[in-house]
Specification:
DNA-binding; three-stranded antiparallel beta sheet; homodimer; 9 strands; about 25% strand; about 240 residues; alpha+beta
Amino acid sequence: MDIPAIKVACSNCNLRELCLPMGLNSDEIVKLDRLVSTRRRIKRGSALFSVGDPFTSLYAVRSGFFKTCVTTPDGRDQVTGFQMTGEIIGLDGIVNERHACDAVALEDAEVCVMPFDQVEALSREFTTLQSHVHKIMSREIVRDHSVMLLLGSMRAEERLAAFLLNLVQRLHARGFSQSELVLRMTREEIGSYLGMKLETVSRTFSKFVDEGTIEVKQRYVRILDTEALKRIVTPCEGD
Amino acid sequence: MDIPAIKVACSNCNLRELCLPMGLNSDEIVKLDRLVSTRRRIKRGSALFSVGDPFTSLYAVRSGFFKTCVTTPDGRDQVTGFQMTGEIIGLDGIVNERHACDAVALEDAEVCVMPFDQVEALSREFTTLQSHVHKIMSREIVRDHSVMLLLGSMRAEERLAAFLLNLVQRLHARGFSQSELVLRMTREEIGSYLGMKLETVSRTFSKFVDEGTIEVKQRYVRILDTEALKRIVTPCEGD
DNA sequence: CGGAACATTGAGAGGGATCAATGGACGTGG
DNA sequence: CCACGTCCATTGATCCCTCTCAATGTTCCG
């Protein structure tokens, strides 16, 4: 191979403050480099893994945007999450050594492949990584619980407002605007995630536009009044 | 203290096939004994821990029945799970070193306290436990995703049917009947978990009774036609 | 026995689903 | 460059499932 080996390494990755190495010291990150040896490119619309695939690795999103979804035997499916840069995909596969959901790229994407046996070996070796892995899994559990809260006890407007706020917050942490975003998913995918039909998603967007809370042009969304969105999510702060 | 020290140990616990030690060999279980040193009794209606409490330990349910729930700022709450004998509570606390939900005993209960720093230390020491802890967390994530599917895309009857089937299945794994159960939670708690109002839960029970699928007498439920329940959850097997 | 907590059932209202039609954005190929 | 098809989004009209409000019944316990 004459292709100059681009060093695939956490230590020189500009995402290290968002990704697995977050909070590790430079010494520890160098050890991590042993773990992340390969990258994988995923085309828009194709799957990083699918239900039933043997589980071998966790994946860190390096670029692009993913959705994960589960499917009922009768074909309905539920988007369980959207993952952006620096987030970890694949934790669902650990229990049964097979993936329990599909992970699909919503735009051309690249992930760092982290073979799970190596993750385990390395986290036996040094405490910081061990703690880190545990926190990543725990964070996912807490996130899932807040989605359950959303699905179980919020109305359409509250769900969409919470969704938008969550998205901009995560994008902001990645250096993007606090008030503008481009949705990478369709209305139907948003609806699936939020437990509502795509028409309801669209109508709710239109409602927010009418109220002057946001501007929408297809996938582009501009938040004009963040406070209004927050009030929708939490109707009576202080009650 | 004159109270004879009852040995608190996984190695002589009759739940070891269901609980943390599941699948470990006797050698490894002896090591686990170092970890589980104390038990704690929780009265019906009181909390094992609450939102915001410092996180120190995971808990294995030894007897009794718990619910975990999260709360919105405006007071609505969502039951995120029901835990029975052998199941692990507290994983939500790992990320922020504070608990993110309340865990409340639905009947007088007893838990084994597993200080998390010791869990981490021991799982650095031996691989089987490490793998086990990872699987327990991953199982929780997969479970949460299936609850999201339930909340996001099922109707009331499907939700309740899925709930009943899940409960009896878990109870059966603990040696109880496949067709009879006593609910430990109120209609309101079931409703909160399933994202529906208590009246709807009650009505749906009545509907199942009318159809001859189950018998209900308050908290006591007898399943007369398991297949019918399964058909409700998966309306068109094969479509 | 009386009260509190929990459960059932009814009647009516409403939020979101469903069905359906239209319109815009984008990519491909002529 | 425009035509065309496809995918996606918007909007309207109607329906229905579940919520809400309300009354009654049951169980449990002091």
